[in-house]
Amino acid sequence: MTHFFLRAAIASLGLWLASTLVDGLRFESGGWLILAAVLLGLVNAVVRPLVVLLTLPLTVVTLGLFLLVVNGIMLALVAGLLPGFSIDGFWDAVWGALVTGVVSWIGSALVGPRGNIEVTIHRE
User: In this structure, is residue 21 part of a structural domain?
Assistant: First the structure.
């Protein structure tokens, strides 16, 4: 359970950074930001695998670049479900998803796969 909350906090940080860097992403409050991060995690766990599977031929033809579009669609879906989160257009969703994804990738690399900060001590 701690891992879920840590991942949601990292996603919240990514969404906050995306909203500051991309003019078309807006949150009415911090509560909507946190709710969007949790809902984005659920959408990425449930809906995204199906969409990735259905768009696999297009993803292969574009050498994986279409996954940026899929991520933008997932972010736009979350914005459509939450009244306190708005995205102005398609490219704002794609750029927002890119920023959020990079922050999540860096956060996951720092935290580790299980949500534990790993420290290794070598003795000689």
Answer: yes
Q: Do residues 86 and 26 lie in contact, with contact meaning Cβ atoms separated by under 8 Å?
A: yes
Q: Is residue 34 part of a domain?
A: yes
Residues whose CB is less than 8 angstroms from the CB of residue 100 and which lie 6 or more positions away in sequence, other chains included: 11, 14, 15, 17, 18, 40, 71, 75
Taking the C-alpha atoms of residue 90 and residue 107, their distance in angstroms, rounded to an integer, is: 26
Give the tens place of pLDDT for each residue, 64-105.
Answer: 999 999 999 999 999 999 999 999 999 999 999 999 999 999
Closest CA to 55 of 38, 76, 41, 69: 69
What range does the domain containing 38 cover?
A: 2-111
